[in-house]
Amino acid sequence: MKVSQLIMTAVVSIFFTLSIHAQSENIDHRMLVKIEKQSDEAIHIRLANLEKARTEVSITDLDGKVWFSEYVWGEHGYSKMLNLSTLTVGTYTVLVKNKKRTDLQAMEKKADGVYFYEAGATNTTQLTSSNANTVARVKGRKTHSFVVQLANLRQQKATVQLYHINGIVMFKDNIQSRNGYAKEINLEGLESGVYALAVHTPQLQFVQWITITNDTIRVSERQTLNTKDERSRVAIR
């Protein structure tokens, strides 16, 4: 075989090897999370692409009470069926966390069963929701604060609560006999991490995730409760 042919063969071999490596690098190895209702009071949590990483799975209420907690390690996948009939009526956070990723899913326990909050639009500066003429707006104002505004409450009761995902309540306001509400919440001095702003009105219920990183506040995904939509049966992250 001629020297030129040997060189060409070597070049093709190297190119093929690099192409395979590049393709493997482009494979999406993100953790996959699927939470599905199996009945009115039972859910099925399934995880994939864990890559043997130590992963926490928990369910916590807004008062910080842990209703379920389990750690998985040395596994590529996870499957768990949970009966939630003993949960009291209220809002819960389903947390799936490992060193690479944190996934949060809001869940509501009502008298007739369990419902998932649906993910909505993401905007780092302002998010607005409207339902039955009730309007809610969350807007980052300064490096260490954000503003919550509610309109068209029509004298009905509402609550605004900020809590850390580990269940520690940082702020809570009970609103009564008002048509509107505006509050600037200062987060200066709080440790880095993920916080949840839970807003409940008779017409509108949502959880707004807020991340503090290096003294910077990011208003991220909003999840809104819709008990009439069949999509509230499945949450895929």
Straight-line distance between termini:
55 Å
Number of strands: 18
> How would you state the average pLDDT, rounded?
80
Cα shape: globular
Name the strands of the widest sheet in spatial order.
4-3-6-7-8-17-16-15-12-13
- Structural class by helix and strand composition: mainly beta
The low-confidence runs, each spanning 5 or more residues with pLDDT under 50, are: 7-27, 122-127
Biggest pleated sheet:
10 strands, antiparallel
Number of helices: 1
Question: Order of SSEs, N→C?
Answer: HEEEEEEEEEEEEEEEEEE
Structure notes:
It is a single chain. Strand 10 and strand 11 form a beta hairpin. Strands 4-3-6-7-8-17-16-15-12-13 form a 10-stranded antiparallel sheet, with no helix packed on it. The chain has a 4-stranded antiparallel sheet with strand order 5-2-1-18, with no helix packed on it. Strands 9-10-11-14 form a 4-stranded antiparallel sheet, with no helix packed on it. It contains 1 helix and 18 strands. The protein has one helix at 3-25; strands spanning 32-39, 42-48, 55-61, 66-72, 78-83, 90-97, 102-110, 113-119, 126-131, 134-142, 145-151, 158-164, 169-175, 180-186, 193-200, 205-213, 216-225, 234-236. The chain is mostly beta strands and 237 residues long. Helices cover 10% and strands 56% of the residues. The termini are far apart. The radius of gyration is 23 Å and the shape is globular.
List the keywords.
mainly beta, four-stranded antiparallel β-sheet, 237 residues, ten-stranded antiparallel β-sheet, single chain
